[in-house]
Amino acid sequence: MDLRRLRYFLVLAEELNFTRAAHRLHIAQPALSQQLAHLESEIGAKLLRRSVRGMAPTQSGSAVYRHAQTLLKLAAETANVARGAGSGASGRVRIGMPSSIAMILVAPLLEALRERHPGILVEIYESPSAYLGAQLFDERVDLSVLVDRSPSPSLTMVPLVSESVYFVHERKSNPLASCKSVSIAQLADIPMVLTTGATTLRHSLDAAFREAAVTPRVLAEASSAQTLLTVVAQGGKGTLAPFSALSWHPAMRTLQHQLVLPRIQRVASLAWSPTASMTESTERVRDSIIEVTRSLVRGRKWLGTMLRSPDA
Description:
Blueprint: H1 3-15, H2 18-25, H3 29-43, E1 48-51, E2 54-57, H4 59-84, E3 91-97, H5 99-116, E4 120-126, H6 129-137, E5 143-147, E6 156-170, E7 181-182, E8 191-195, H7 200-211, E9 217-222, H8 225-232, E10 238-242, H9 243-246, E11 255-260, E12 265-272, H10 280-298, E13 305-307
Parallel strand pairs: 3-4, 3-5, 7-11, 8-9
Antiparallel strand pairs: 1-2, 5-12, 6-10, 6-11, 6-12, 6-13
Helix pairs in contact: 1-2, 1-3, 1-4, 5-10
């Protein structure tokens, strides 16, 4: 099978428009149509369906799209494998994770990989937690740090940590500054900026507010931990976040964080699809994520957490 035709099909399946796909590929539109026809003939199935509503992948097309992504990724890494033979793991590994966990995990992970596996190039994709599972299914990432329940029993998951939530407020304007810890009831009258409904953290927060019979004063929502904390650092507003979100934030010195009791916790797990190819580089990155997580928790750099990974 011609890998070039697979690449053409990937672009066409993403654009769902011959004109845009041909422009992106720098080929003539009739040539692209001919290449698609050859590929469908080779495979023996229709891959794209055209109607008055536009173009859409068939069931076979969706399956071939996911498989083609893996094939082309492996093909692209072939040269790297040859060059790196005998010199350790090499190649590209894509990791998805919530922005809050990326704040504390990415920097030490990259440093560990630089020292032990310098041939590995890591791509970090930050997304709201509700979208991370889909990236694994579509094979847009090789590994993902998922929060709370798995989006599918077909994924392989290794629990990393359980992480507690803190009340975060600008120190000088914090009305609860004298409290060592706070309850949900104490937050009833405090203006808040919270994560959006696209995050599993927000679902846990809403459940905690309901249980305490408290309606929060939500002024705004944001999916980015950076945005939340930047707004809170201006004073007069609070948020609820795990320690990972504020661990490296530039405004950390001006922010006060207090544990919420009873604890609101989320479980972070490392996940991957058992049907996707697990390269040596992906295995090394997977093991490094687990090792770096343990180091952060044991060294008390990741506060409010308890290790959940095997043999912790």
